[in-house]
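Retry 2 of 3 after timeout on previous attempt. Resubmitting structure tokens to design endpoint.
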């Protein structure tokens, strides 16, 4: 990437597309100059957020901040620059018997992005968000000063930056703790649920499992509404593995990664093809429960097995809509949300349901709250804005909120947990849109 130029830029959903200035730099002094000389700056990592959160008038790409600083193998603590991808961290730590405490559904995000979004995974009910394991990070603030932020040093900036969507400054590097593992494999159980009542019961029964997630068929109605497949898992111990896998338990075989070579035509993705996909996905598992061992990539990153899978949604792009509904209202709220989606005809291939536990009260900008969270992908079309408005109203009715990392359309009242981040120096298109909707 050239150091500084105007280009068309978009995030993973390919919506919206804008022409903006991008600066890419690894010199701290030149990064300081860029911030000092511009307002409305935002940091952008690998562009794997879905909406307009990392777009602004002046974008700083962190991808040249890509060096490891230290790895304390004895205590399981790693320090690296903010543009390092989680995939690169995993390549270093897994052969050494470590894993990320918290990881989202793709390994192709940056460490800085993981902090700015305070990402969660399949284990929030058990182990919280990424921030729980961050010891400190360096931040370039609105005065072009580099400060160290931790729970004891500049703690106000530390907590505002956690989940702060890049609005407090540019994260330059971070130090975080790792989890011990014996193998690179997961002991998995896949369990079919016929409806919402059954999947919620399964989540309650599975709270002792570290990892829980469910794929959900969002186009069903009536007695089948919410039919799902839950995947629950634990890191496998070496002695549990089949003999063949015990030989090199921390190393995975290299896999061929296919690539979507072009944008799919718009007509290929419609209510009928989504319904067919959901039918086939639910029925590919014949038994009520299947137990097996899978490698960590299969369990945590099922979409990463295909490069450029976002092109399936066509050139018009797609959005991801993710909300959380309080646990005590989860069944009623999710049923209303699924009914609304089914009625709209805007089906989602990738509808993922998870259970959040209690969040760290210090992390006030973090998205998770105790309850059920549903993430859905929707192709951009003429009917989508109305669906988002309808979903926003339901989420608001049930006291929920939306995930800013995925947002590109929602109303400001669902994002009011974002606090202590406003200044003219670091501004995203998303934040301007939200602020303008208040006026």
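Retry 2 succeeded. Sequence:
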């Amino acid at each position: 990437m050239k150091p500084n130029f105007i280009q068309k830029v978009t995030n993973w959903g390919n919506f919206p597309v804008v022409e903006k200035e991008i600066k890419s730099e690894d010199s701290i002094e030149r990064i300081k100059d860029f911030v000092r000389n511009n307002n409305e700056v935002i940091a952008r990592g690998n562009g794997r957020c879905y909406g307009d959160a990392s777009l602004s008038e002046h974008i700083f790409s962190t991808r040249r901040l890509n060096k490891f600083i230290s790895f304390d193998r004895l205590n399981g603590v790693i320090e690296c620059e903010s543009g390092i991808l989680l995939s690169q961290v995993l390549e270093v730590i897994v052969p050494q018997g470590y894993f990320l405490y918290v990881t989202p559904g793709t390994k192709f995000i940056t460490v800085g992005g993981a902090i700015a979004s305070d990402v969660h995974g399949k284990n929030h009910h058990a182990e919280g968000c990424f921030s729980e394991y961050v010891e400190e990070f360096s931040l370039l603030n609105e005065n072009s000063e580099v400060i160290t932020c931790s729970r004891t040093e500049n703690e106000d900036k530390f907590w505002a930056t956690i989940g702060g969507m890049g609005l407090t400054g540019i994260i330059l590097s971070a130090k975080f703790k790792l989890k011990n593992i014996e193998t690179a494999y997961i002991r998995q159980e896949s369990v079919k649920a016929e409806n919402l009542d059954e999947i919620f019961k399964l989540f309650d029964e599975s709270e002792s499992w570290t990892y829980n997630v469910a794929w959900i068929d969002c186009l069903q109605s009536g007695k089948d509404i919410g039919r799902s497949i839950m995947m629950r898992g634990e890191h496998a111990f070496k002695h549990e593995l089949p003999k063949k896998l015990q030989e090199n338990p921390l190393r995975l075989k290299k896999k061929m990664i296919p690539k979507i070579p072009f944008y799919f035509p718009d007509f290929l993705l419609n209510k009928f093809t989504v319904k067919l996909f959901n039918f086939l996905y639910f029925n590919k598992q014949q038994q009520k429960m299947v137990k097996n061992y899978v490698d960590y990539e299969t369990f945590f990153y099922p979409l990463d097995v295909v490069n450029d899978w976002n092109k399936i949604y066509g050139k018009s792009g797609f959005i991801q809509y993710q909300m959380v509904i309080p646990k005590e209202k989860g069944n009623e709220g999710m049923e209303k949300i699924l009914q609304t989606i089914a009625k709209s005809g805007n089906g989602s291939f990738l509808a993922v349901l998870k259970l959040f536990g209690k969040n760290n009260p210090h992390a006030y900008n973090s998205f998770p709250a105790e309850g059920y969270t549903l993430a859905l992908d929707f192709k951009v079309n003429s009917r989508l804005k109305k669906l988002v408005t309808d979903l926003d109203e339901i989420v608001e009715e049930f006291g929920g909120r939306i995930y800013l990392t995925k947002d590109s359309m929602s109303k400001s009242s669902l994002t009011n947990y974002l606090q202590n981040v406003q200044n003219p120096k670091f501004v995203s298109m998303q934040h301007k849109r939200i602020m303008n909707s208040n006026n």
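Attempt log closed. Residues 62 and 83 are 5 Å apart (CA to CA).
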